[in-house]
Amino acid sequence: MEPEQPSNMGDNSKIESHTEYKVVGNPFFYGHRKDHIIDEDEPSVKTGKYATWKEDNSIVLSWIMNSVQTDIALTLAYYTIAKHMWTFLRQTYSHDKNVSKILQVEEELLKLQQGELELSQYFASVEAAYERLKALRPPCQACYKTHFEQTMVAKFLAGLSPKYEVAKV
């Protein structure tokens, strides 16, 4: 008989897949004032501040373990320091190098057409796809206005139904 997997470890009903989970810059840690745990090293002196660090470290380890898929949680089970666990996750699953996901979103954009959608629905679809792309591959600030926004507008216009042909001129 195979051992049962813990049912709550890696229960990822809130996160559909690790590729959609934005590992870098997760606001959850910052909103709970625990960002120091993933930013700072373990205190070298095991007195005073160490007790608070140890408690916060345990909380963050628990948050991370309960936020990832079971197969990922199994690779994290032996980490005892949240900063090291977070570094591993960032290096492994960061969107910065997620070329296949970027390609998938770019292909989705290429195929996106208004078709039978209302204009507002089509615009929302284009904008949502560009927001996903922006999250995966953030544009430089200087390029955003000159390239990213212009590309989004061009894609929107290119995919419009023939009845909006006059808008493309």
Give an overview in words.
- By secondary structure, this protein is mainly α.
- The chain has helices spanning 27-31, 35-39, 49-65, 70-76, 82-93, 99-111, 119-136, 141-158.
- The longest helix is centred in the C-terminal third of the chain and has 18 residues, at 119-136.
A few lines on this structure:
The protein is mainly α and 169 residues long. Helices cover 56% and strands 0% of the residues.
Secondary-structure map:
Blueprint: H1 27-31, H2 35-39, H3 49-65, H4 70-76, H5 82-93, H6 99-111, H7 119-136, H8 141-158
Q: Enumerate the spans where pLDDT stays under 50 for 5 or more consecutive residues.
A: 1-25
Distance between the termini: 68 Å
The residue fraction in helices comes out at 55-70%
Query: Beta-sheet strand percentage?
Result: under 5%
Mean pLDDT: 75
Largest sheet: none
H and E string: HHHHHHHH
